[in-house]
Amino acid sequence: MIFILWGEDKSCKNTLAFSFPKPMVDMEFDIGGSRRAMRNLPHLPIKDWYDQGLIKVEQYVMPFQIGRVDINLNSVTPSKIVVGVKELFYQFAGNFIKHLKDPNVPTIMVDTGTLLYETTCLGYLQEKQELQMNPDGSMKMGNDGKLQVLRTQLQRQEYREPYIRMRGFIYQAKAHNKNLIMTHHAADEWGMVRGKDGSLTEGKTGRRQLHGWAQLGDGCDVLGHTRWDANTKSSWFDVELAEVKELEGMKFENPTHDKISQVIKMIRGE
Predict the structure, then answer these.
(1) The CATH number fitting domain 2-134+150-192+210-268, selected from 3.30.160.150, 3.40.50.300, 3.40.50.970, 3.30.1250.10
(2) Which of 69, 184, 222, 239 has the highest CB neighbour number within 10 Å of its CB?
(3) Alpha-carbon span 7 to 14, nearest angstrom
(4) pTM of the prediction?
(5) Could you give the residue ranges of the DSSP H alpha helices within 44-176?
(6) What DSSP state is assigned to residue 61?
């Protein structure tokens, strides 16, 4: 099952993810997310699973992007050159492939897909920057005979490559018959809104949406968002998109993989 979930901070995204079949590997970009969720609950013995080695956490720490640091002079020289992110991406990709090939790992969790997508894009920008530079770090000359200007962002058409890389993770998990869970942060939705003078302008709509790579729906089995109900002291998962269409619109209290998969099996008549 390819499972995409998003939600506000502390809305039990990891709690739901940790209920999937084990042994599982949590490939963690959002450092500390697993630690916050690592506690036993009335319906899930998460800490016991971790203590038994059924949940393995791998951390992928984003390197500092602050330029050159001189510890002796206690100074920082700012730089627009991206460093270390390409290496972090390929470290993740190599380990992801290793887990795909491991028959003893039925489930891979990525926390968060938002940060994986940012790493993928920034790592690709680093590759583009490196093509502009000589081995000594100086800028190469352009075709016009002038020094190239360091690029600081991807061009619109260049996002095709990060999209391909992200889609590759999903479809490789499908091909290897793995469970893949990607958690995502929430972000403000932007769109056309009416101003005080009645005119239409672009701005925040007041709604929240999944933050990160937008082209997830074609590859996932289930997509939805988590939320915490402070009144009932329980977590919820609201299904927004699903391969089994009857699942869409359903709401699960204190959701788990077993609860959702049982409903899917019932709908399919399995």
Answers:
(1) 3.40.50.300
(2) 184
(3) 10
(4) 0.89
(5) 46-51, 85-101, 113-131, 160-175
(6) P
